[in-house]
Amino acid sequence: MNRAMLIGRLTAKPELRYTGGSNLPVTRFSLAVNRTFAGKDGQRETDFINIVVWRKQAENVCNFLDKGSLVAIEGRIQTGSYDDKDGNKRYTVEVVADSVQFLESKNQRNNHDTVSSEPSPYDYQNTNAVNVDEDPFAEFGDSVSIDDNFLD
Asked: Residue 144 — very low, low, confident or very high, per pLDDT cuts 50/70/90?
């Protein structure tokens, strides 16, 4: 069984790209995930996990998430390798996301980033996380307008 479940914050604004042959939407980003234990100095370390998201979910991630957004990722670990320009073998590890859950609204993220008494922006165990059963688009109003050119 190959399953990965992560909660963390995006380290940068994701960028949408399209594959060459079939023109499928894809985005890659790094997720900062705190370890559950502290090191010798008493500080919790953070792992930076590479994430890949495909198709409509990739478009949603790019449209609605930004650097520092809190998300839950469920997917599978994928490994690979390639030869760099000097002929050295390099190995890759990434999580291919099957599901991306938005764990806070844009307003909560903005408040979280501006209030200095809040926990670190990479501390996913904050008290501002919303219930994932709530509508993540509730603050967008009654309707969402999508330009026809966006769907091409």
From this structure: low
In this predicted structure, the answer to whether residue 126 has a pLDDT above a threshold of 90 is no
- Is 33:47 a contact under the CB 8 Å cutoff? yes
Phi, psi dihedrals of residue 112, rounded to the nearest 5°: -60, -40
Write the DSSP string, 99-128. EEEE-S-HHHHHHHHH-TTSPPTT-SS-TT
Which CATH number is correct for 4-136, 3.40.50.880, 3.40.640.10, 2.40.50.140, 3.10.105.10?
2.40.50.140
Helix (H, G, I), strand (E, B) or coil at 20: coil
Cβ pair 136, 69 in contact under 8 A:
no
The pLDDT score that the predictor gives to residue 115 is: 44
101, 71 in Cβ contact below 8 A? Answer: yes
Residue 127 to residue 95: CA distance in whole angstroms: 26
